[in-house]
Amino acid sequence: MRVGIPQSLLYFKYGNLWKKRLNAVGAEVIISPETTEDILSNGINHSISDLCLPVKSFFGHVLALKDDVDCLFIPRMIRIEPDAYLCPKFIGLPDMVRAAIRNLPAIIDTAFNIKEQPSNIFWHEVLTELKKLENTSSPDKKISGEIANLCHSSDEAPVGRAGALRTSAKKLTIGIAGRPYLVLDNHINKGVLRYIRSLGIETSIMSSLDKNYIADTMEKLPKWVYWSMGKDVVSTVRWMLDDNDTDGIILLSTAGCGPDSFVAELIEQVLFVEKKPYMHLKIDEHTSDVGLKTRIEAFIDMLERSSRLKKQNLRLGIEN
Amino acid sequence: MKLTVPHMGLLSSAYTKVLREHGVNMQPPPRPSLTTLNLGVRHSPEFACLPFKINLGNMIEALDNGVDSILMPGGYGPCRFGYYGVIQEQILKGLGYNFKMSTTDNPDSLGCLVKTIRDISDINSKWDGYSVFYLILMRMALFDKIEELYFKVKPREINTGEAEQAFNESSKIIEDATGYAKLLIARQKVKSIFRDVKIDKKIKPPRIGILGEIFVVIEPFANMNVERRLAKMGVEVIRGVWLSDWLNDRFRFKPFRPNQNKLAKKWAYPYLKYPSGGESIESVGKTIKFCKEGIDGVIHIMPFTCMPELVASTILQRISADMNYPVLSLTFDEHVSEANLQTRLEAFVDLLERRKKKRKEKRDN
Fold first, then answer.
1. CA angle in degrees (0–180, nearest 5) for A208-B45-A54
2. Interface TM-score (ipTM) > 0.85
3. What residue ranges in chain A does DSSP mark as E strands?
4. Which of A220, B175, B185, B324 has its CA 20 to 30 A from that of A79?
5. Confidence label for A138 from pLDDT (cuts 50, 70 and 90)
6. Is the peptide bond before A277 cis (omega within 30 degrees of 0)?
């Protein structure tokens, strides 16, 4: 049984977990390739224009995958924590895929709603669906029912202390905040991280955030953010503002992203971003490379000036 | 305390006089206009949805007129509406305004809303609070009723302008009915006013369903008066999203009107299997229902970047293809182009009339 997972959207957060679980029950997991211009433009051609870029890319990945697999794994992610939602497009994602793309294989669209049922029930339902499908598809792999053992371990991404991934802390470092499917997909983010590194500046991204740190950040806001990824973004920016090794922060978001339109505003209003050089980059398929590069270069100029000034003040004994 | 609430369709007409009679100094902002929109756009985040910008503009206008308290309903998602009040308060305080913002954070909770009414007014007893709340709901339902009657009557009226006259007269009567007895009388009166409008019963106008995000559907400024434009073109508008339905699904003051949300969930299956927030399930479910009922076409209205309606819009395109059913998707934001809208509406109505003609010719042969 070949199960396809598009390398897009929540793959960047849960992909490894999903692969592990599906492999454990005997499914062969096939991941779509990394985003390319072809994949993206295919996706755009199948979407209505107002959709955000990552969702359009998702459609492109489905198109790249659909003819090589027996079924697609597109769970309906409603809530990954009890007091917040994911963006409505995640909730309706399987239905949108069915509407926008024809000649699809079966789609496993089991709903994941941690407020209604625990994750082991979710996986039982997925297993049931797989078994049903196996009866009507190629008998290459046998789906077995041993998922119960796996479900004892925690389902969440590893809960570590807030920490960023970086190679060296000597160079100037820009913290890149944003949703994982934007920050980690080098085609959709127009190679922003690569470009920054090519100019000799280090980039750091958040690997995992402590749940207590996120909860504490929510307390500091006038109202907690009720989108899970929005919570992560706000907490990441706050962490980077306080981190001594981060010299500047860039918030990457997609033009037309619903939650980010408010979360970015909240960050600017409430988190005192005047502490450090901060820039909000909005990207969509029309963004010109030249425009992006200009803004990044200007930002780095500002960073380098600010860092020189700090060192000067330290030598002269002036308080920052 | 001078209290204001940003406009949303005819809702302010439903509560303003009633609350004033109970000691609330209500100062509604001016009805949304280009001034409102420009003010809102200037101070809103770029990709905030249109209702946010119009609401913000209304709040600024009201504050400039001396208001010192704002009431803004809240919520918990997944659509952005629940976060409006938070961001708006930050923006306005940043602009230097001094005011108190209250958000009823749980607009689904009867107790929460009634408590809000008692907090702002001179109503003391819980019973009176519930009584006033339900009075407001029933007034809202009656306002919705006269809109429905207007849409039925307008394409068939013999003397141009009579339908508008009837609507304006009825509006005034409902506004003045600030008690249950007066409301009962008002109900009979407005029905008879519309019955008296001279209509040509032989006219069979094309019927168009209107669905989409609730604010842009019921607030005429937000949708550039789409419904009235269609009515003037001789179309019978069948609106599928009513504020009184949203309220009735939660507070059950129209016991014979079934829960529209539950019905929409049934109708939308299997195209949309789970509500994606906002009015997405109604947009999909009622389009299918309208198609099966023989309504000639659907116009789907949404603000730019509205997340639930993007889900619905993607699915509606497929429904339109599968069921050979005309669906026109209109997206609204602060860029206002009347010529564009009018052209698209005329083209759509032309399409529907041609299809009707073809069906009639087929039947006659």
1. 50
2. yes
3. 2-5, 28-31, 71-73, 76-79, 106-108, 111-113, 163-165, 173-178, 202-208, 248-254, 278-283
4. A220
5. low
6. no
Q: Which helix (H) or strand (E) holds A229?
A: helix A228-242
User: Does the beta carbon of A269 lie under 8 angstroms from any beta carbon of chain B?
Assistant: yes
Residue A177, beta-bridge partner list: A251
Amino acid letter at A108? I
Cis peptide before B28 (omega within 30 of 0): no
The minimal CB distance from A50 to the residues B48, B310, B319 is found for: B310
Q: What is the dihedral of CA A187, A193, A195, A197, to 10 degrees?
A: -140
Residue closest to A250 by CA, chosen among A310, A308, A190: A190
Bridge partners of A164, per DSSP, are: A206
Residues 6+ apart with CB under 8 A from A207: A160, A163, A164, A165
Give A160's pLDDT tier (boundaries 50, 70, 90). Answer: very low
Q: Which of A91, A100, A261 sits opposite B274 (nearest CB)?
A: A91
Our CA angle for B272, A84, A182, nearest 5°, is: 80
Q: How far is A136 from chain B (nearest CA, A)?
A: 21
3-state secondary structure A116-163: CCCHHHHHHHHHHHHHHHHCCCCCCCCCCCCHHHHCCCCCCCCCCCCE
User: Residue B30 carries which side chain, given as an amino acid letter?
Assistant: P
Q: Of B344, B315, B320, B316, which Cα lies nearest the Cα of B330?
A: B344
Calpha distance B173→B336 (Å, rounded): 33
Q: How many Cβ atoms from other residues are within 10 Å of residue B224's Cβ? A: 19
The model carries a pTM of 0.92
